[in-house]
Design a protein that fits this description.
The complex is a heterodimer.
Chain A: H1 5-16, H2 21-53, H3 60-77, H4 82-109, H5 116-138, E1 152-154, E2 159-161, H6 162-184, H7 186-196, H8 198-203, H9 208-234, H10 242-255, H11 260-280, H12 283-300
Helix pairs in contact in A: 2-6, 2-9, 2-10, 2-11, 3-4, 3-5, 3-9, 3-10, 4-9, 6-7, 10-11, 10-12, 11-12
Chain B: H1 6-26, H2 29-55, H3 63-78, H4 84-106, H5 111-131, H6 133-136, E1 142-143, E2 150-153, E3 156-159, H7 163-186, H8 188-198, H9 200-205, H10 210-236, E4 238-239, H11 247-259, H12 266-281, H13 288-302, H14 306-314
Antiparallel strand pairs in B: 1-4, 2-3
Classes of the chains: A mainly alpha, B mainly alpha.
């Protein structure tokens, strides 16, 4: 997992300008919030799949990458105003990714009977297949997607990209929508019933197999949406799924497996601290500390920092 | 399992070793070098199998143990100027200490959490190699210079870069580890490990200390993997961070699954098979990760016992 060059560049830039501390902290916090927003969506996908299906999807980061790569393909295929291509990508890319995930779930996971360990091995296989196909058909280059609008919001100290702020808003809306679906609708009720006790749910006539398929696709779509949102800032690359996978694991573990509120809180925490820590330390050191801390959480407090002990 | 025929089992294993020895005179140069590499990596797979096959603990972080041996031996020889035997010992010691620490921590978890925790520790290990690039060479890695790779016995000296010497060294390590695993598997400790895999609660209730048995298995497994890593550094002269990456935690899993988990010879068969498949397909396509991915899924779906596991189930019940 190589560090992206632009992170280094930004880090050096920040290192040189050390006069105004406050504005830098604000800038780091804003950047951190953008990271958190994308992370919360990606991690929510992973968390839903784990919560309802009790399996860990190692290929989750590749669904993220696929979303970004498809966003590039769709937005370059559509001419006209960049917003047009972006909007098309925001709708079509997650649908394609969701369809791919659904097929993978039907063909592989269902046949494995959702055995947790076999599923991890199989999703590792999917990870390699998706990554290699992206390398073959998309190539090793990092390619940019034009943001739908270029509006800079002028703060007293610096101008800030309006698009980045809109990512935060979009993510918040999607999170609220997911929460409403989970708590206020029949589909959400069915999902929660399956999560709570899949056998009893089955006995009450809930088509558990179809719920699993839907949840797996939904999880992949959330990752794809997050990727489409971030790709105008960070470019599409075939290896870009690795960092989100690791960070999502971290968020899901800290937030407590399968808990939506915990996931969001942990995403904000990790996103902010990632931005602020990597302002003062090297990004590699920040990753080392974060990974080690999370491994220790998993060892000594497996229910997560915010979760309660599992049944 | 192998109760009735200890002699048969030992004869088979010695036969395999003799066959590998004979092959060193027959094989053309290219395959000669390839097989030496495969034997070293098969040791890695055997170490992995110790834990995954016999105890049923699926680790996704064994690259760190291979890396501990690789860097332990490599750094000792390059940065400290140690001799070959001392470097090998350093690699083994690094692997033993690291696996003890990781075992103490990771064995507090089970199942999926164990997989993720080991993966995360391995990731930390990998990032540490990149972070201390001044000593480790970062993602460029290091080359062990040829003059340092000579084994001195008084007046005579063995050049580890010579293909024949290299093959014999690889075979020696492989045979040692193969016989060690065979004897562990047949021992009391080995049987307790299998009992833990089948039903840990019941084993505990029967009065066995499952925790220390598992910890011992982690340390043995990690040290064997470190031996493979140290041998790789000394025999092939390259110490690189990619060997500590996630991919090298997945590969031994693939080799063991393919050859047959919980069989002593499965790791060798899986490694040979996968290496040749990749070697052959790389003539047509550079997309070898695609092959790895498809192989993983097909194995898990249709062939979970692997090659030797299936043979044992169908025909040769006595295979260890």
């Amino acid at each position: 997992m190589a560090d992206r060059p632009e992170v280094h560049a930004w880090h050096h830039f920040i290192g040189r300008v050390t006069v105004h501390f406050g504005p830098h902290l604000l800038l780091a916090a804003l950047e951190g919030l953008v990271t958190s927003a994308v992370l919360a969506l990606t991690a929510l996908g992973l968390s839903l799949v784990f919560g309802v299906m009790r399996v860990v999807n190692v290929a989750h980061g590749e669904f993220f990458m696929l979303g970004a790569v498809l966003a590039w393909a769709i937005s370059t295929a559509i001419s006209g105003h960049p917003a047009l291509g972006f909007l098309a990508a925001l709708i079509i890319a997650p649908l394609i990714v969701g369809a791919i995930a659904l097929v993978a779930e039907r063909l592989v996971l269902r046949r494995l009977n959702y055995n947790p360990e076999a599923t991890i091995v199989a999703t590792i296989g999917m990870l390699y297949i998706i990554q290699q196909l992206a390398l073959t058909f998309y190539g090793p280059e990092a390619r940019p997607v034009e943001p739908p609008f270029n509006y800079r919001i002028l703060l007293p100290w610096f101008g800030y990209s309006g698009y980045k702020l809109s990512i935060i808003a979009a993510s918040a809306l999607l999170l609220i929508a997911t929460w409403l679906v989970l708590t206020r609708t029949r589909i959400g009720l069915i999902m929660r019933a399956t999560q709570y006790d899949s056998e009893t749910a089955q006995a009450f006539g809930i088509p558990v197999g179809r719920v699993y398929g839907g949840v797996f696709a939904l999880g992949a779509m959330l990752a794809a949406i997050a990727a489409v949102l971030i790709v105008p800032i960070s470019q599409a690359h075939y290896l870009m799924g690795q960092d989100p996978l690791l960070l999502s694991f971290i968020v899901v573990i800290i937030g407590g497996l399968g808990s939506l509120r915990g996931t969001v809180v942990a995403a904000v925490l990790i996103g902010l601290s990632d931005g602020i820590i990597s302002m003062f330390f090297s990004p590699t050191l920040a990753k080392i500390i974060a990974t080690l801390l999370v491994a220790m959480v998993l060892v000594f407090r497996p229910q997560g920092l915010f979760g309660t002990a599992s049944r | 399992m192998s109760e009735a025929s200890p002699a048969k089992a030992y004869a088979l294993h010695l036969g395999i070793i003799a066959l590998l020895f004979a092959l060193s005179f027959i094989l053309p140069e290219y395959y000669h070098g390839l097989l030496a590499r495969i034997m070293v990596l098969a040791v890695f797979a055997m170490g992995y199998n110790m834990l995954f096959g016999y105890v049923g603990l699926l680790s996704l972080g064994h690259a760190m143990f291979f890396g501990a041996g690789l860097y332990g031996a490599g750094l000792a020889i390059i940065q400290l100027g140690w001799s070959v035997p001392a470097a090998l010992a350093a690699g083994l010691a690094c692997g033993a200490v690291l696996s003890l620490v990781i075992g103490l921590l990771a064995l507090r978890t089970t199942g999926v959490a164990f997989m993720i925790v080991t993966m995360m520790f391995a990731q930390v290990f990998y990032l540490l190699i990149l972070y201390f690039a001044t000593w480790t060479g970062g993602d460029q890695g290091m080359v062990v210079p040829q003059p340092a790779r000579v084994l001195n016995f008084g007046a005579t000296s063995l050049d580890l870069t010579d293909p024949t010497v290299r093959y014999i060294c690889a075979l020696t390590l492989f045979s040692l580890v193969l016989l060690i695993t065979l004897s562990i598997v047949r021992s009391r400790h080995g049987r307790v490990l299998v009992a833990i895999r089948e039903n840990e609660e019941r084993t505990k209730m029967l009065g066995y200390d499952t925790y220390s048995n598992k910890l011992a298995a982690v340390v043995v497994s990690g040290t064997i993997c470190a031996a493979s890593g140290a041998a790789y550094a000394l025999l092939f002269g390259y110490v690189g961070s990619s060997f500590a990456s996630v991919q090298y935690s997945i590969l031994p899993l693939l080799w063991v699954l393919l050859g047959g988990a919980a069989t002593t010879l499965g790791p060798l068969i899986g490694t040979v098979f996968m290496y040749y498949v990749i070697d052959i397909t790389s003539g047509y396509t550079s997309a070898y990760l695609l092959i790895v991915g498809i192989a993983l899924i097909l194995l898990v779906l249709f062939f979970p016992k692997g090659i030797l596991g299936t043979i044992r189930q169908r025909w040769l019940r006595w295979l260890p």
